[in-house]
């Protein structure tokens, strides 16, 4: 079970690094190496050359641009807003709303680790200033008068942002955020695959390395309870499996090729168990999205039976895809955040 991962990880780290394994809920902000006043390694002169006078005034001098007279207050195109200095992703258009203030307003950042905030006094009032974490760019202010579900309003200056439309994600290296815009993936010619192969930490890390894969999201599927939590699925009583949902470009990598990787990274004869993890939540399955994927998955399974040399029955399921629930944020890209974490998959052996 997953407790055995902690034992394995802690032992490995004690042997190889002499450091204590920080546990899966470690805050990524604690492991960063950014200096408190880091400004993305740009000097003041470099920033003045890189930015317009208005951008510099806002991000460096905590200026405020005019309402209703800025680039993005009424922008409705789907995409991601990044820091104008560093390019770090900050907000998604899926979280943008019309606040009536004349500035871009969002109910939350694209990641809880994207921003830092601090109390600030200006214009005779005390407010919460919001900055980008890496570049420390002044963005705007946070207010508690936003709509549900967060009740928050991040009031942000357009001058502190650069907008990247969803159709430019691949070339801008933002493919991982495609999951926020499922209605556009098919329009862009991308396709989706869903696999469970034991621990989703390793499966996510593995598929991210494959050329043509644009986004891999760890999550839960195949169960009957809506919006399950990790603690609930860990009990094995919700019917869900730890899985990954993959968005890929079929012009670069085919579904059949992804299937070959899938069979490679797990033991198809192991029932409700992969590596050190035991339970129905660790079962292996292909969750097909249409008749074409079903046919290819069944053909690949038949071929495996004929040529795999397995003495035991193939236990991997081929079942229809159903609702996919993204896992909690601390599970996403877990092995990037915690390189010493347990993984039953050989991440150095990717063909």
How would you explain this protein's 3D organization?
- The model is unreliable at 1-38 (pLDDT under 50).
- The chain has helices spanning 2-16, 28-31, 44-50, 53-61, 169-172, 182-185, 200-208, 230-234, 255-264, 291-307, 334-337; strands spanning 79-83, 89-92, 96-97, 105-106, 115-122, 125-132, 138-143, 153-156, 161-165, 191-197, 213-221, 241-248, 273-274, 277-278, 284-288, 317-320, 325-326.
- The longest helix has 17 residues, at 291-307.
- It is an alpha+beta fold.
- A 6-stranded antiparallel β-sheet has the order 3-4-8-7-6-5.
- It is 25% helix and 24% strand.
- The chain is elongated.
- The chain is built from 11 helices and 17 strands.
- It folds into 2 domains: 43-166, Beta Complex (Metal Binding Protein, Guanine Nucleotide Exchange Factor, Chain A); 189-337, Peptide methionine sulphoxide reductase MsrA (Peptide Methionine Sulfoxide Reductase, Chain A), CATH 3.30.1060.10.
Helix content: 25-40%
| Structural class designation | alpha+beta
Number of helices: 11
Residue fraction in strands = 15-25%
Strand order of the largest sheet: 3-4-8-7-6-5
State the CATH superfamily name of the largest domain. Answer: Peptide methionine sulphoxide reductase MsrA
Q: Largest sheet, if any?
A: 6 strands, antiparallel
Overall 3D geometry?
elongated
Question: Any guess at the CATH architecture of the largest domain?
Answer: 2-Layer Sandwich
Uncertain parts: 1-38
CATH topology of the largest domain: Peptide Methionine Sulfoxide Reductase, Chain A
Q: Distance N terminus to C terminus?
A: 29 Å
| Strand segment count | 17
The CATH class of the largest domain turns out to be Alpha Beta
Number of domains: 2
Q: Give, in order, the helices and strands.
A: HHHHEEEEEEEEEHHEHEHEHEEEHEEH
Mean pLDDT: 88
């Amino acid at each position: 079970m997953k407790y055995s991962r902690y034992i394995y990880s802690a032992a490995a780290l004690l042997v190889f690094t002499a450091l204590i394994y920080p546990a899966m809920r470690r805050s990524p902000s604690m492991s960063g190496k950014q200096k408190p006043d880091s400004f993305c390694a740009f000097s003041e002169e470099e920033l003045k050359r890189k930015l317009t006078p208005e951008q510099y005034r806002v991000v460096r001098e905590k200026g405020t641009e005019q309402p209703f007279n800025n680039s993005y207050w009424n922008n409705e195109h789907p995409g991601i807003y990044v820091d104008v200095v560093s390019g770090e992703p900050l907000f998604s258009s899926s979280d943008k709303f019309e606040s009536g203030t004349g500035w871009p307003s969002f109910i939350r950042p694209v990641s809880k680790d994207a921003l830092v905030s601090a109390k600030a006094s200006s214009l005779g009032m005390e407010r919460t200033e919001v900055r980008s974490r890496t570049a420390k760019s002044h963005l705007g202010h946070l207010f508690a008068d936003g709509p549900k579900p967060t009740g928050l309003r991040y009031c942000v200056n357009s001058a502190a942002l650069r907008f990247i439309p969803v159709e430019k994600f691949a070339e801008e290296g933002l493919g991982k955020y495609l999951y926020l815009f499922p209605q556009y993936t098919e329009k862009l010619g991308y396709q989706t695959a869903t696999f469970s192969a034991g621990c989703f930490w390793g499966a996510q890390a593995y598929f991210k390395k494959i050329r043509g894969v644009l986004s891999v999201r760890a999550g839960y599927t195949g169960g009957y309870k809506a919006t399950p939590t990790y603690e609930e699925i860990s009990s094995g009583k919700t019917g869900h499996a730890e899985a990954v949902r993959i968005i890929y470009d079929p012009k670069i990598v085919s579904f059949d090729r992804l299937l070959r990787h899938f069979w490679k990274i797990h033991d198809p004869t192991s029932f409700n168990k992969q590596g050190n993890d035991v339970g129905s939540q660790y079962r292996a399955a292909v969750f097909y999205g249409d008749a074409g994927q079903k046919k290819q998955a069944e053909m690949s399974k038949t071929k495996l039976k004929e040529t795999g040399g397995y003495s035991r029955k193939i236990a991997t399921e081929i079942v229809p895809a159903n609702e996919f629930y993204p896992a909690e944020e601390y599970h996403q890209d877990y092995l990037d955040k915690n390189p010493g974490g347990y993984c039953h998959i050989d991440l150095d052996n990717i063909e």
